[in-house]
Amino acid sequence: MTPPAIVLYRSFDEHKTEYPSSVSSATVKDVEDWIQELSLPLLGEVNGDTYAAYAASAKPLAYLFIDPADATSESYIELLKPVASLYRGKINFVWIDASKFADHGKALNLAEPKWPSFVVQDVEKQLKYPYDQDKVIEAEAISAMVADYIDGKLVPTLKSQPIPETQDESVFTLVGQQFEEVVFDDSKDVFIEFYATWYIIPDFRE
Question: What is the pLDDT of residues 101-142, one digit of tens each?
């Protein structure tokens, strides 16, 4: 270390980290952003105590769902650390206890309680991008998926009925997978009725 220098000490990850650029040309915001980025672990656990810190960063969250009771769980964390390091500053990588927070997996559009699983969530837009649960989690595949997400090439998974095979009725049945394609078609006007199939309109007539 050659002065002048700024050194950050932490109790996790690398315990000692030196500011990577010239201190003399660094602005207050540069240093604040650097400290903010390093305030979160490279791939830490997200739970009720830590979620607020991740949400406050406003960065997308990449969840690794694992069962800590499974002997292989730690190996998956280590497997994805290089990927987390590659995209640090753009996406926050976390692991989550799937045995405790399986319902959160459902909220992130995971099709089934199958672990390990991986999901990228756009926290601001509340869009979810699950990794195919039929595929083995591999560092190269996850890295490629995250790269596609950053480049805007990934399509979010929506909770939706499948697209009807035929549309023979006078009223078009709109499902989530076709929403943007149909609703934002500038060549026509669109009128949509949103309703719940289980809701019965009360009859107030005497």
Answer: 999 999 999 989 999 999 999 999 889 999 999 999 999 999
Query: Which residues are 79's β-sheet partners?
Result: none
Count Cβ atoms within 10 A of the Cβ of residue 166 and give its class: 0-12 exposed, 13-18 middle, 19 or more buried. exposed
Return the residue matching tokens 């799937």: 98
Measured in whole angstroms, how far is the alpha carbon of residue 35 from the centre of its chain?
Answer: 22
What is the length of the chain?
206
- As a whole number, mean pLDDT of residues 147-169 equals 85
SS3 71: coil
Enter the pTM of the model: 0.73
Domain with CATH 3.40.30.10 in the chain: 40-150
The class that CATH gives domain 40-150 is alpha beta
